[in-house]
Backbone:
C-alpha cells in the first residue's frame, strides 16, 4: 500500500486515478482548492486544501507521502492551459524543499509530442483547433522541463491521441516516444485504463526519469 498525494482529483482523469487508487487499497490525500467539490467517501481518502502552483503548499502536502500524482491540466479544457507548465515548476520546486526524502512524482502529460508512424508528431496534424494545440504545446513545455530535472524522481505519462471516459479493461500497451496505434489506425485509451496504467507504474516503477505512453 502506498501513500499518494493527488492533485487534480476532481477532473476527468484525476477522478479516475482517485477511484483506481482507492480500489487497490492505497491511502490517498486528494489535494483540491474546494473540498466541497469532492464528495467521495472512503476510509483511505483524506481531502485537503492545497495549491499546485505554490511550492510551499506542494511541500506541505507531499511530506510523508510515497508518490505525488499531478492530474492538473489533464485534458479538462482550455481553462487549464495556463496552469500546466507553472504546475510542473511548482511541483518540482516543492519536492526539492523536502530534500533527499522527497516522494516520486508522476505527472499526467499530453500526446502532442508523440511520434506518429509517418514520423511526424501528433501536434503537426492539419486542422487541429487552436485551444487543443495550446494544451498540447503546454504539455510539451512541461515535459521539456521535466527532462532537465535529475534530482527528483519523475515520470510523465502521455495518453493516446484520444482519451475519454469509457470502459476499464485493465489492459493497454506502452511505448516511450511513439504513439501507440491499433491495427485499424486509431490511437485511443479510456480514462479508466489510463488510471490503471498510472497505478501500475506506482506499484511497479518502470519509467523513473522518463516519459512513456499508453494506448490500446
Residues:
Amino acid at each position: 500500500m502506498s501513500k499518494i498525494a493527488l492533485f487534480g482529483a476532481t477532473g476527468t482523469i484525476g477522478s479516475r486515478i482517485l477511484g483506481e487508487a482507492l480500489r487497490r487499497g492505497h491511502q490517498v490525500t486528494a489535494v483540491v482548492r474546494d473540498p466541497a467539490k469532492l464528495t467521495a467517501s472512503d476510509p483511505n481518502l483524506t481531502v485537503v486544501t492545497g495549491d499546485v502552483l505554490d511550492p510551499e503548499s506542494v511541500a506541505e502536502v507531499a511530506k510523508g507521502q510515497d508518490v505525488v500524482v499531478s492530474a492538473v491540466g489533464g485534458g479538462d479544457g482550455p481553462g487549464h492551459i495556463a496552469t500546466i507548465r507553472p504546475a510542473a515548476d511548482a511541483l518540482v520546486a516543492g519536492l526539492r524543499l523536502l530534500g533527499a526524502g522527497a516522494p516520486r512524482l508522476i505527472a499526467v502529460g499530453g500526446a502532442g509530442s508523440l511520434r506518429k508512424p509517418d514520423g511526424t508528431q501528433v501536434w503537426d496534424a492539419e486542422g487541429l483547433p487552436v485551444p487543443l494545440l495550446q494544451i498540447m504545446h503546454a504539455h510539451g513545455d512541461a515535459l521539456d522541463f521535466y527532462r532537465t530535472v535529475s534530482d527528483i524522481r519523475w515520470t510523465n505519462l502521455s495518453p493516446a491521441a484520444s482519451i475519454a471516459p469509457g470502459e476499464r479493461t485493465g489492459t493497454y500497451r506502452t511505448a516511450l516516444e511513439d504513439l501507440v496505434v491499433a491495427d485499424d489506425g486509431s490511437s485511443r485509451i479510456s480514462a479508466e485504463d489510463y488510471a490503471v496504467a498510472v497505478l501500475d507504474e506506482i506499484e511497479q516503477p518502470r519509467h523513473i526519469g522518463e516519459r512513456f505512453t499508453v494506448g490500446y
In short: The radius of gyration is 16 Å. The chain has one domain: 3-215. Residues 130-146 form the longest helix (17 residues).
